[in-house]
């Protein structure tokens, strides 16, 4: 597989002034890792967005710094604007191709569960990613989990059931649950649930009426006492 090349420039603008950088279509970034002194960089926002959409977060990138060195890197962290979901900053982590790395890889659920589409169950997923250890060259974009094995409500998929890609070690507890199918509620359970909801309403209303009545009694007693005092 050909390396994905990402061009970068050394960045001198820092702090609050990076707003002007973003306004010019540039994306602030930082590079660190393996005793490398952190370097402030800037990228073309459009170019990075396209590469990140295609490659994702678990692809080794060939980061070329103009006037500097080339580095094999992973996207370590993305900061986004909470309102517009626009990438605001990128952290790159330098990797050595001959040293194993630990990282999280997303799970990709494939197939169909008959317990869901035939028996009306609900698919429940306990994990969305797995922690792995591997050489950078063997880092998978995701790990597939086939849910077609969930053909009844008793079966589950645990970490032990997942086949790790070649030269990839999964670090999660083998007994940790990944997915199962929960059966639909029975008519009796639904009726009981409705009954509980209906019973709660008059109880709350009755408590409100009681509180109001107590307030009136106290008010009446206080008012009567006040009248007596005034007459005296």
CATH fold descriptor of the largest domain: Ribosomal Protein L25, Chain P
β-sheet strand percentage: 35-45%
Class from helix and strand fractions: alpha+beta
Instruction: Quickly name the level 1 CATH class of the largest domain.
Output: Mainly Beta
Please provide the count of β strands: 13
**Which geometry do the CA atoms define?**
elongated
Radius of gyration: 30 Å
| Helix percentage | 25-40%
Average pLDDT works out at: 86
List keywords for this structure.
232 residues, four-stranded mixed β-sheet, alpha+beta, RNA Polymerase Alpha Subunit, Chain A, domain 2, 4 helices, disordered C terminus, 3 domains, Ribosomal Protein L25, Chain P
Description:
By secondary structure, the protein is of the alpha+beta class. It folds into 3 domains: 4-94, Ribosomal Protein L25, Chain P; 101-182, RNA Polymerase Alpha Subunit, Chain A, domain 2 (Beta Complex), CATH 2.170.120; 193-232. 28% of the residues lie in helices and 36% in strands. The protein has 4 helices and 13 strands. The protein has helices at 18-23, 45-55, 114-117, 187-231; strands at 4-10, 26-33, 36-44, 61-65, 70-80, 87-94, 101-110, 122-125, 129-134, 143-146, 156-158, 168-170, 177-182. The strands form 3 sheets. A 6-stranded mixed beta barrel has the order 1-3-2-6-5-4. Strand 4 (61-65) and strand 5 (70-80) form a beta hairpin. Mean pLDDT is 86; it is low at 223-232.
């Amino acid at each position: 597989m050909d390396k994905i090349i990402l061009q970068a420039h050394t960045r001198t603008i820092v702090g609050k002034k990076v707003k002007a950088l973003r306004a010019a279509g540039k994306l602030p970034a930082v590079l660190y890792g393996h005793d490398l002194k952190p370097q402030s960089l800037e990228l073309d926002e459009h170019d990075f967005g396209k590469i990140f959409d295609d490659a994702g977060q678990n692809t080794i990138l060939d980061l070329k710094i103009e006037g500097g060195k080339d580095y094999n890197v992973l996207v370590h962290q993305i900061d986004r604007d909470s309102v517009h979901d626009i990438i605001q900053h990128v952290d790159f982590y330098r990797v050595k191709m001959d040293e194993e790395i630990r990282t999280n890889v997303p799970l990709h659920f494939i197939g169909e569960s008959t317990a869901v589409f035939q028996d009306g169950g609900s698919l429940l997923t306990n994990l969305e990613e797995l922690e792995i250890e591997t050489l950078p060259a063997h880092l998978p974009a995701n790990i597939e989990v086939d849910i077609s094995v969930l053909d009844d409500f008793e079966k589950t998929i645990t970490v032990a059931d997942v086949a790790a890609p070649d030269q990839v070690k999964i670090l999660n507890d083998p007994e940790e649950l990944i997915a199962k199918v929960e059966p639909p509620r029975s008519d009796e359970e639904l009726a009981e649930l409705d009954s509980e909801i209906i019973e709660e309403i008059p109880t709350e209303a009755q408590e409100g009426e009681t509180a109001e009545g107590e307030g009136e009694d106290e008010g009446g007693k206080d008012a009567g006492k006040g009248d007596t005092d005034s007459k005296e």
